[in-house]
Amino acid sequence: MSSPIVRLLLWMSLPGFCLAGDAGARSLNAKIGRIETAVASLREVQVSLDWPAQATQGELRLRAASVVAPDLGYRFADVSWRCPLQRDGRGGWRCEGELRSGRAAPLRLALDLGVAVTDARLSRGAAVVALHRNAAAPDATRIDLTRVPLAWTQALAAQAWPEARFKGGELDARLTVTAAERQPLRVAGPISLRGGAFDTPDGTIAAEHLGAELALDARFGELTRFDLDGRLRGGELLFGNAYLSLQQREVAVELTAQRQGAQGWQLPRLLWRDEGVLSAEGRAALTPDAGLDALELDLRSANLTPLRDGYLTGFLGLAGLGQLQLRGAMQARVRVAGGELHAADASLQSAAIDDPQGRFRFDGLAGNLRYSADAPVASALSWSGGALYGLDFGPAQLPFTSGAGELRLQRTVSFPMLGGQVSFDGLRLRPPAGEHGLDIRFGLGLDRLDIGRIAKAVDGPAFSGELSGRIPQAHYANDRLDFDGGLTMQLFGGSVSVSSLAMERPFGVAPTLSADIALDDLDLESLTGVLGFGSITGKLDGRIDALRLVDWQPVAFDAHLRTERKRGVRQRISQRAVQDLSSVGDASFVGSLQGMLIGFFDDFGYARLGISCRLADEVCHMDGLGPASKDSGDKAFIIVQGAGLPRLDVVGINRRVDWPTLLERLEAVGKGDVKPVVE
Predict the structure, then answer these.
(1) CA-CA distance, 381 to 677, in Å (whole number)?
(2) What's the pLDDT tens digit per position in 378-417?
(3) Which residue from 54, 294, 362, 409 has the fewest beta carbons nearer than 10 Å?
(4) What is the CA radius of gyration of the chain?
(5) 326 and 351 in contact (C-beta within 8 Å)?
(6) What is the Cα–Cα distance from 604 to 575, expressed in whole angstroms?
(7) CA atoms of 660 and 647, how far apart (whole Å)
(8) For the whole model, what pTM was predicted?
């Protein structure tokens, strides 16, 4: 059965209603079409009393087709109560028995109708609702709740929040209900909540294990108003993407909410004080469908470290940053108008941001960042250093201006990184608004970054060279980062160019990178030496198109590598390089002389070298310079075409190679674990 409060209030009309008559009466029956009280109305009421002659008590039966308390939101049908009626010896009456409504579980109602007071006690198990009313103050009724299930207040709460569904928790309260003529119904008093749990049908708002000590003052009518003051005692709260974990902390809260008719709620007073973590104060307004219409909020955190677990895990988790570490202090002011961000001003002191997964780190963040949807404002933010995927960078100061809903960088900003310089310019940021999400555009320049330091940071081969390039514009939207232009690396006497570069979820879960790569005039002797491969001399060209990395592991590409003859450049391949190529590519090699003679040579001349791999579904589809012979069909293919004496060709014999197996073979080659076998 729903909350019993209204069932008790209906008895406010009974002191003037004759129930028994004289001692000699045997029965009394009454039918009343309608009973009106200041709180509730009863329809089709039937009262009967059987009192045997000379008996000390009679049996009272009451039925009502409906009980409705519109201001409180309660409606009950088919209400019945049966109890033994007896005098209390002081001119009043007492009756206690089972109360039922429809098919709901029964409650027990005890009623004392005194000369000047009315007391009632409604219970089910340990849950008790006690009512006291004094005839000297007929407009006020006191209601005491003890271990009452929160679900019993569902209908009352629906007056202010119809979407709420109460799922657990117990209430203690001492409330005064005032129902004065021509005055709004008022409910006021202290409330204690333990283990509160509720949610909404769409799951956007929820709470678990919530405790509270609050003072309530609520008025119901054309203007409905709630005032709440007190403390929350631990628990978890969810509001959209905002997840609040109070653990066992006490949080001071103050809230005033009022609504006129069908208009949206106005919240002229908001206060939240979580000592040592976060304080917030301001006001807000909601739309009729409970969306945010306006907000003015001042926020302060003297210690950002506990802010993540207390308030930010919901937002950070969506971006794959649930373990982000924060330090320092922050103050901020936010203003929302018409449901969209209108102004924001955030100030940081000695702050730091560190991603434990090593994707980025910013040290010594200081200054302020201001955003405006209309009039221009200026601000500046700086950092003392940091790192990006383990690559350290130096200090920088970023001057900003904002207006017309956009945050812009005032000038090009450069900072040292990996022995060179990184520069940003043209930065423009638009926060989410309406159906549009976060939108960021910027230009990027890299000038002579040391590739050797990059290789060392990622624990890769000891490459050497420089990385330079210019990306006129990068665009981040819908969790995707696209780059115009490209980057060029000077490596091994040649160049490596990267174009069509894009990233999905750059700092989220399983980041994805796609690019096209062109190789031009790489010195093979230097390249194979760094890779731990057998020695090959010559110049290498090639392309790696449609490269796709997921969580920095290749899952797809189409690679074609070829040597190109250059005047004055020798083309030789060592015995070990032949064996390494054979091991990696499922190949064999044959010579024009007898196999036993080939083993006496350290290296061989070659006319052409070429190999390709198209990776898809963890299978590398291999190819080379062409078919090994007219009779080989599509099976065997040439990887190295020999030249001179002794002539040696390397022939691939398997066009489908398992990618994980290929990686294992490459690792073995780098460690020198491949033993030469000459056929």
Answers:
(1) 62
(2) 999 999 999 988 889 999 999 999 999 999 999 999 999 9
(3) 54
(4) 40
(5) yes
(6) 8
(7) 33
(8) 0.72
